Amino acid sequence: MIPRRLRRGASLLRFSKKLASLDLEYLEDSDTQNLITKVRDSYLWQIPDSVRVWNYVFANFIGIVAACIALIPFGWWIPVVIIAVTLPRFYFKLRHGNFVWSMYGSGAPQAKKLWYYGWLLTDTLPILETRIFQSQQKLLSKMEDTQNYLYDLNKKPLENYKWILIFAPVLETSVAFLIVWLFVPNVLIGLLSIGSITFIIATLESLRSNTAWAAAHVGELYEKSLFIEPFFKLMSLPKKIIEKEKAQFLSDTAPPKIEFRNVSFTYPNGRQALKDISFIIHPAENVALVGNNGAGKTTIIKLLCRFYDVSSGSILINGINIKDLSLSNWYSHLGTLFQDFMKFQFTVRENIMLGKTGLEDEARMKKAALESGADEFIKQFPKTYDQVLGKRFEDGDELSGGQWQKLAIARAFYQQAPILIMDEPTSAIDAEAEYEIFNNLERLYSDKTLILVSHRFSTVRNANKIFVIDGGKIIEQGSHKDLLKLKGKYAHLFNIQARGYQ
């Protein structure tokens, strides 16, 4: 049976809403990604197809009832026998559905790989790299192997299905012929007219056809229900980040005091990322997080954005536990620019204004573009701020990595959040542009909190306070000058970079 709520129009929108609300823990989990792949590849077309099959089942049911009523005067057992001989078809169809689902379920990870290979071989960025390394043939070979694997999986249920096509019709037709043959003597002795036996034959064929198709369609519905099941599994995934019913709100838009108090965190896979760290970020302070890859910098940002909850300890915002805050209220205080920022293939105007939905301020948008340095290339476009970006849509114009990054910075400037988190914000920007952007940052965010994550010490040396992270712990903290005097980890890393510039 197809649940009523699906018949009423479950769609791509419902699927997209669920994905948009999934916690980061799910999105970073491979099992959940496989589940999403199954839903994306099957659910979105299985539901409309299920509605079509339900219409067939209803029509078959009407035909069966009408044929049974017409045949009962000639013998109540006739409809019973005809319906009974369709059971093998129903049985084979159920087995076929289970087999198809088992093959599809086991092939979902490979299907995800197939789409990934397709992206590597069709998107501009990977094509440029694979062409230089001459690795296209290797990728094509991997794609072909994956295609062959999925073909072999799908070939087995097709071979199994041939028994339905051969055995079931032969059995059903033979039984119908036998029933008609039993009435022949009555025709010969005049107990049945030619018209009556003709009516019996036509009605028998109608009953046989409708029962056969009904069994096939019900079996098909069962098969489709197996494909639809992952959708319900996905939709029933519980929230990991729970917002309290009576959540608290920050009373104003001023930057709050942020305190990590004895915070430890372990990822679901068992990897401990943070170990009993404590620090305070005062309002309007400019702080930086530095350290080697895997030290725990990004984990601190994820916890501050409450993408995950701490394993132990607490994060306090103006003395309020972050778990007690309204998420929408807290997010209204945060601006983010991650290293893997979004490249929205919309117009320049939309790219910048997405920084603060609900606000359409032309002057503010252009000011943000000027302060990020993005206006230099925007004014070169014939349509300026109405230029479509990227190559996905018609008349789109592609940007360089640095230009996209400047546009992302403009989006952050447009938001003007009380707290701005920037993770490697200028990694693709030249030194001169970087210098101008950080001068603008210091001026624009003099009354706001700036949290910077970077490996480039030229971008962090002006921070009021620098936290040096190593092995999930804060091993040093202080200003640039203070940390150089310590001659510890920070001084060591800074001197290595400084020698590279000499």
**What is the strand content?**
5-15%
The average pLDDT value, as a whole number, equals 78
- From the N-terminal CA to the C-terminal CA, the straight-line distance is 73 Å
Name of the CATH homologous superfamily of the largest domain = ABC transporter type 1, transmembrane domain
Q: Using the coordinates shown, work out and report the CATH topology of the largest domain.
A: ABC transporter transmembrane region fold
Count the E strands: 10
Q: How large is the count of helical segments?
A: 18
**Which CATH class of the largest domain is shown?**
Mainly Alpha
H and E string: HHHHHHHHHEEEHEEHEHHHHEHEEEHH
The overall number of domains is: 3
Architecture of the largest domain in CATH? Up-down Bundle
Radius of gyration: 33 Å
Structural category is alpha/beta
**Main beta sheet: strand number and arrangement?**
6 strands, mixed
Q: What portion of residues is helical?
A: 55-70%
